[in-house]
Design goal:
The complex is a heterodimer of chains A (about 475) and B (about 425). With about 475 residues, chain A is α/β, with parallel strands linked by helices. In chain A, about 30% of the residues lie in helices and about 30% in strands. In chain A, helix 3 runs antiparallel to helix 9, helix 10 packs across helix 11 and helix 11 packs antiparallel against helix 12. In chain B, helix 1 runs antiparallel to helix 2. In chain B, the strands form 2 sheets. Chain B has a 10-stranded mixed beta sheet, with helices on one face. In chain B, strands 3-4-6-8-10-12-14-16-18 form a 9-stranded mixed beta sheet, covered by helices on one side. Chain B is an alpha/beta fold and about 425 residues long. Classes of the chains: A alpha/beta (about 475), B alpha/beta (about 425).
Amino acid sequence: MDNRQKEIDNLKDYKYGFTTDIENTRAPKGLNENVIKFISNIKKEPQWMLDFRLKAFERFKQLKEPDWQKPKYPKIDYQDLYYYSAPKSMKDKPKNLDDLDPKLLETYKKLGIPLQEQKRLNGIAVDAVFDSVSVATTFREELTKQGIIFCPISEAIQNHPELVKKYLGSVIPVTDHFFATLNSAVFTDGSFAYIPEGVRCPMELSTYFRINASNTGQFERTLIVADKGSYVSYLEGCTAPMRDENQLHAANVELVALDDAEIKYSTVQNWYPGDKDGKGGIYNFVTKRGLCKGKNSKISWTQVETGSAITWKYPSCILKGDNSVGEFYSIAITNNHQKADTGTKMIHLGKNTKSKIISKGISAGFSDMTYRGLVDISSKAINSNNYTQCDSLLMGNKCGAHTVPYIKNKNSESNIAHEATTSKISEEQLYYCQQRGLSAEEAVGLIVNGFCKEVLQQLPMEFAVEAQKLVGISLEGSVG
Amino acid sequence: MKEQLQKDFDNTIRNLSLSQKDIEIKKFYLDNFINKGFPNRKEEDWKFSDLNQIIKKNIGELSFYSDYTYTNKVDTSAFVDGLEHNKIVFINGRIEKIDFDYEKKDQIEIIDQSETINKFNNNSSLSDLNSAFTNKSFKIVVKKGYQLTKPLIIYHTTNSKIWSKNINLRLNFELYENSSLRLIDLFRDTSEKNFLNIFYNFDLKENSVLKNYKVDKFENKNIKYSFNNIEQDKNSISETFILSSGSNFFKNEINCNLNGEYSSSFVNGIFSINNNKHHEIRTIINHLTENTKSYQLIKSVLEDSSRAVYQGKIFVNSKAQKTDGYQLSKAILLNKDSEFNAKPELEIYADDVKCSHGSASGSLNEDSIFYLMSRGLNYQQSRELLINGFLLDVVEKITDPEVKNLIKNMIGIKE
């Protein structure tokens, strides 16, 4: 105990040591032009950026909140949110590990993340937004040598306005849907990456997102541009502290791949899912869209969604360039009262474009999971191909698994194949494993991991290990 | 359209001898329809087929009143040859003939229900339209243990006397325990530019069997919507086959509620369309209790700039353990302008189930054509052989040999 206390104290010092780098200001509550100007001002943004925000806000005022999704949620009062906020003072955070739900602690122990790391994840010590910037800084020198730009987007707006101006909003325009437009108006920070022509990014770029303060919406914006012939693999991780109220997270992620470029975007989303009774948790309403702008370009999304009270997102690919390729690999797990409505859109515009969708959904407890996807092959996209496979696994009869694919083929020279299955873990499989000495829980873990393997394989090594453990942990208590 | 509706409604009511209460009910449905109008693409169920636009484009202004005071002559030459059958004949929406000559009279009951307006399990505005304007409606009851010896063919005939008209029909069927019915809907039109709105309700009691075949084969320029609601009790079986081909637009909807254990539902369909035709099949199979089964197979062959839509949904509620649900749709697009849209949907709340769906669309396999041509067939022959084989798969699912042969002959499939 003493040791642990010491470590916590150490971490506290560590934390305090960096407070100077973290802004502590909060914008006035509510959403209006002044708040947007406030955000823009505090970030010292140029006029064009402010105009971009205001244009989005004008549009936002005319939009209605969508309601076609499967998971319904209580109405969000957009005037009751803080749109800009630094983390609350340290006093407000859990002072030590004992304040945390022991289950969460246990969870991370099982994850095998060292204590130091564990504390970072739990949000006791290090601010992850800060952390993400520092990671970038660590390698910035090495990256700069190759001409790669990797920095917070607010910094990019200052230092590389020509790039940001050119690509920001080119995939998700300010005139997009409700949450995307809200993000365009009020986004606070996020990452920017630019890979110059012909460069193969030597390491994985990564960001760790966290929601800290209460009553705050988090709106970050990520923009990744891969210039001709370049390659980049980008990782995103998320966690949030436990709070009783629901919090909104509405991020925008834009990817642009030019001729022969490839972007691999991986997410392990582990936002706070709410407690066992479905109280609290994050509303994860994210817009992710990639544009295969050039010919022979490729964008690949991989996601492991285990957290959030409600996950509502469709990472999409617009296959504009001839011969471009879009891929989507997803594992979504819901337990207790979590809800997910997720999937992808593959929009084929160019000739000889290919897309592949592998989606694995697992629902347990009282949760509800929906795969919703669109494959649209336009009449000009001749010789295009799509393959979709979405499998669902149900655990218990209080949960739901749904599949809603939209398939549009406007072209006789293209092929679309779609397959979906829903089932449960068979008694035979369980029996087989248990007979060989595994406990029921281990057996389920093993079978589920096998079920997810196709997707887990797509993740970079370090992530795959973490994700595999997360998969097991998310389902804990759902058997027997 | 509103004034037209009001005027036609008043005319329709005048010709019916309805109680004040029934008139009120009909008015209620009329107001509902006036409020909602024809379904358009903003409604999820009509996303791929905007009926409002289709009617505007193909017909223009519709009128809703039909004068049913005179009788039409039944043209016996239109009847199906070589198959003895019972008949119900609709001409321009008016029932001209009900004939169960081959059956025992006391085993079949025909009840005039024109004065009772039953609600349909359908909340689209077309149901309101149907309730407001439907004229004569009958309930056909097959008594306990009776199995019809011959199929019943319902002729939906229209002739050139009508133009730009909306025709609303409805029929109710009740199949008592251990009974069975084979039903063929046959569409034959010489009219153009009318909108047929058809509602059937089937009530299948324990151990009853319904074979429900819909044949839209003959070329015509009408627009059709057909809604079938099938309620199924324990051990009952429903088999639906749809041949969707002749009309300019046809949307077939099958809503099937598997209420009793061990009940099963089969829906098979063929789209074989060309020119600018636009056809849709939408199925909703609700598995509401344990040990129910459903199977769906839809195949499409699309030529020119035709467009086919398949929206299939399997719903399994939390009580419906041991459900077996399967759904497959396949489409061959023969022209660069043809289009196939699908929305195969699964909504599942029970864990011990086996549900799957598949959907594929693409061009005719060139390798297969090459294979056949290398064995001496010409291109046209190879193509036909492949398409026939593709469609034969669905026709073979028809369990009634007489009807199977009839349909094979109609499509011109040789074995």
